[in-house]
C-alpha cells in the first residue's frame, strides 16, 4: 500500500511519482494498473476509449473505482464521474474486478491532460501512475503556398498537432466535391487549372473537418478570341461591339488592334456609327504578368445602305415569286462586297489624310469581382 510506504520514506515528490510509476510495490504486493497505451492522440469532437486492466492482492475486494486527472499524494483525487466538465461525457466500461476501461466522448481541447485509474479495496488503495496522456488536435490543410503557377508541383498536407494512428484514412474535399485521395498528403505533381479551389480534409469515421485552404492556380491568357455583336451583316451607321474573350488568372489586360495599329483597350471595343473606313481586320491581345496571347483576326465588312436596300428589295421580290431575282441578288451582294474591299484597299493608302471624327470607345471592365463597369477610357481615334 503505497500511501503508507510513502509517509515512512517521505522522499521528494518527483521520486514518489517515479516509484509509483515503476510499480515497485505492485511487484511485491500484486497491485497494478495497465493501460492499452500511455499516449493517445485524439481528434477534437471524437470519442476516445482507454482499455485498462487492474490487479490487487487476493483476499481484497473492491469498494470504489474512479478515474481522475490529478495525482496529489495524501489528497483524495477528484472523481471525474462526478465533475461537471466530464459527467455527461465519460462512461465507465469496466467493472469492479479487473477491467477499468473508460470512454470519453466529444473530446475538447481542455481534455488535454493526463488521466489515472484509481481504486480502493477494503484494505488499501492504488492509483495507476503514470497515467494516460491525452492529446487533442484539430486538422489543418497546409500547402507551401496559396498561389501556384499552372504546371508547377504542389503538396497539400492534412496536418494534426499530434500524430494520429498510421491506419487513419483521410478524406479530401475541393469546394463541395469529395476527391479520391485518401492519404495524409495530397500530391499534385503538375497543378492544373481545375485543381484550383478551397481544400478541406477530414479523417474517415470522424466528423471534424479542417478549415479550408485556398489553392489559386495562375496561368497566362489562353483561348483568346473576338466576338462581334451584332454579328454577320453590319450596315453603315450601326454600332458594333467587339468583345475579347480570354481565360487567364490573374485577369488579363486587353488591347485592340486594327491590322497592326493599336486602337484601344478594355474588354469591349465599341465602334459607334460604323462607316466603310472601319472595314478591316481586328484582333485583341490579352496580357497578364505570365504572358500574352493574340486572338485570330476577325474581318469587319460594312454594307453600304444603298446595297442593302437593293438586296432587301430583291429578296422581297423573290419571296413574292420572282425567283429569278435571287440570282441577281447574289450578284449584287458580290459586287457590293467587291466595291467595299476595293474602297478599303484604297483607303489604306490614304489613311493619314482622313482623320475621322467618329469615336471609338473602349469600355474597361475593371476586374471580375467588380459589379460595375469601370471607367470609360478616353475616346480613341482611328486613322
Ligand atoms: C480496447 O478493447 C476493445 C475490446 O476488447 C478492442 O476492440 C479495442 O481495439 C481496444 N482498443 C485499444 C486501443 O487497444
Ligand atoms: C511533394 O511530396 C513528394 C512526395 O513526398 C515529394 O517527392 C515532392 O518533392 C513534394 N513536392 C513539393 C513541391 O514539396
Ligand atoms: C474518382 O475515381 C473514379 C474511378 O476511378 C473516377 O471516375 C472519378 O472521376 C474520380 N473522381 C475524382 C474527383 O477524381
Ligand atoms: C455594346 O456594349 C455596351 C456596353 O456594354 C452595351 O450597352 C450595348 O448594348 C452593346 N451593344 C450590342 C449591340 O451588344
Ligand atoms: C491568384 O493570385 C494572383 C497573384 O497573387 C492574384 O492576382 C489573383 O487575383 C488570384 N486569383 C484568385 C482567383 O484569387
Ligand atoms: C495592366 O494594366 C494596369 C493598369 O493600366 C497596369 O498597371 C498593369 O501593369 C498592366 N499589367 C500587365 C501585365 O500589362
TrEMBL record:
Entries under InterPro entries matching the protein: Ig-like_dom, Ig-like_dom_sf, Ig-like_fold, Ig_CD22, Ig_sub, Ig_sub2
Superkingdom to which the source organism belongs: Eukaryota
Keywords assigned: Membrane, Receptor, Signal, Transmembrane, Transmembrane helix
Residue ranges of domain Ig-like in the record: 130-218, 221-299
Membrane-spanning segments: 312-336
Signal peptide (from-to): 1-26
A Pfam family the protein falls into: Ig_CD22
Subunit composition and interactions: Predominantly monomer of isoform CD22-beta. Also found as heterodimer of isoform CD22-beta and a shorter isoform. Interacts with PTPN6/SHP-1, LYN, SYK, PIK3R1/PIK3R2 and PLCG1 upon phosphorylation. Interacts with GRB2, INPP5D and SHC1 upon phosphorylation. May form a complex with INPP5D/SHIP, GRB2 and SHC1.
Chain's role: Most highly expressed siglec (sialic acid-binding immunoglobulin-like lectin) on B-cells that plays a role in various aspects of B-cell biology including differentiation, antigen presentation, and trafficking to bone marrow. Binds to alpha 2,6-linked sialic acid residues of surface molecules such as CD22 itself, CD45 and IgM in a cis configuration. Can also bind to ligands on other cells as an adhesion molecule in a trans configuration.
Protein name (database record): B-cell receptor CD22
Organism: Triplophysa tibetana
Lineage: Eukaryota, Metazoa, Chordata, Craniata, Vertebrata
